[in-house]
Amino acid sequence: MKSKQQRQLFYLVPYGAWLLLFVIAPLVLLLFQSLTNANGGLTLHNYAVYFGSGTYLRMTFNSVWFAFLITLITLVISYPMAYLLNQLKQKQFWLLLVILPTWINLLLKTYAFIGLLSKTGTVNNFMSFFGIAPQQLLFSDWSFLLVAAYIEIPFMILPIFNSLAEIDPKLEQASRDLGANKWQTLRRVILPLSMPGVKAGIQAVFIPSLSLFMITRLIGGNRVITLGTAIEEHFLVTQNWQLGSTIGVILIVAMVVTMILTRDRVKKNTRK
Amino acid sequence: MAEQTPIIEFKSVSLAYGDTEILKGIDLSLEQGKFYTLLGPSGSGKTTILNLISGQLAATSGDILFENKRINDVPVEKRTVNTVFQDYALFPNMNVFENVAFGPSIKKMSKNDIERQVHDMLKLVKLDQYADRDISELSGGQRQRVAIARALANDPKVLLLDEPLSALDYKLRKDMQYELREIQQRLGITFVFVTHDQEEALAMSDWIFVMNDGVIQQNGTPEDIYDEPINHFVADFIGESNIVDGIMKTDYVVHFVGKDFENVDAGMRPNERVEVVLRPEDLDLTTIENGKLIVTIDDQSFRGDYYEITAIDDDGNEWQVQATNSAQVGERVGLTFDPEDIHIMRFNESEDDFDARLESYEDDDEE
């Protein structure tokens, strides 16, 4: 028994080392830095600045709001798409086509959108046939939402697709057999059973969307300022690492809250 | 038997996927309030028939009638039949009450009516104490009961059961057979039960359809099918059988294993080649002098209420015998049986021909 335990401990070493070096240590450093001033003394000054400033709070609200919109848009597109993909015969192949764009570098995809949306870009070229070009498409909230949603959609589709694929087709048959039409079956059987996938998708999209910064700059033209942009500014431009860390801590707290809100509560629901 | 309008009728119904024929011209007619069984090995098309009645599958050709109306194009949810699925297919996101209430709530029944209906159904399957349980907390037998209650909660005119007992252990299966039969008789609705277990079929059914290769091989009461199997497949599939080749010399005389035997079959061509069926329980061990057949005991196993004996005759034919007394392996003994224990099967005789022949010489007997 003892040797077995020791062996298990041994297998945990790589995981433990990873956890310590790349998760726990950075978090501690981040938290520590957020509690210091430029001379290294302990202070709550950074948090006072953050919570005392309308700009930062607006930025935070902006981040959450845009992340919410991105999540909502991807969810509305992804659920029906995942549902349809699941009905197809070669579903794994079609799913692969959806996943494929995630293998391409994010920056490349973003530049591709600049080419599409700029004043001399493909979309404006096309619209000039109707005499409504050139339009300012880039550097708007809409273009930011469009590109962000495009980038995030595969991460929403994949978990939803998986949870739908796991549902026993017999359950759909049983529902129809008991008198439910397709829509009632979707609402009362399929949708509730695919909620774990929806929650996982929301986590996978909402949390990264909170800290998007490249797209905000390249597509949003810095008109959309999010927490991600603010952190980048503080670390790279104003060199105020302390305040940057503070915003980082706020971001992590926001992520933890999201995870708590979307965690699997199946047990609780059924035991009322 | 009084003529009744059938509740379900199949008129030369076929189903094919490309070149693969699953059902080949099925004709059948089911009456109100009876317990029917579709019996056959896997791949025989029995579950396909169930899916055609429920509407999960569509026939390639032929008509399916429900109370004399063609229902080929009626969608699943509009049919007044319900199904108990093989693996129960209970909704895991709902508790017992919600599962049973699913059908009634889709029908927009009032809250009180739903509660009364669910309560009645759970009581019928003896699960009224379990309404608030999660599906994951139930045993296999209890899930089975929930599935039955859920299907019955819609007050179907026909209940379809797709191998519902196959996942249960032996004792539970026996109890459920009895209980299902009782529920069917209490409610007076038609049950269509699919199984590959011939014992189950014989024990529960009013009427059995024996299926193989997408064709109904024979249909009739359990007694008819057991006593008068129409061909090799049915004789072999229903119960244990000894089947040997023989020649029907004249009416009431059959020749097999080198001897002539008196029997009770007639209506065949003189010297027609036939198959002869003798059931193991109809064979008795006796002395060599009294034996109609002389055999050597090859193997014996104790089955509780009888001994299962394998014996070999001098021509090398194997004989299964169910005997109340034990014998010695290697011992030479006689086998005896009565003329009415011999059942004759003609090659390629259809059910209609079989029935007609039976009637022709049974009428002769009465005259």
UniProtKB/TrEMBL annotation, chain B:
GO MF term (any one): ATP binding
Domain ABC transporter: residue ranges: 8-238
Keywords: ATP-binding, Nucleotide-binding, Translocase, Transport
SUPFAM superfamilies reported in the protein's UniProt record: MOP-like, P-loop containing nucleoside triphosphate hydrolases
Keyword match Electron transport: no
Highest taxon above the source species: Bacteria
Pfam families for this protein: ABC_tran, TOBE_2
Protein name: ABC transporter ATP-binding protein
Organism: Leuconostoc pseudomesenteroides
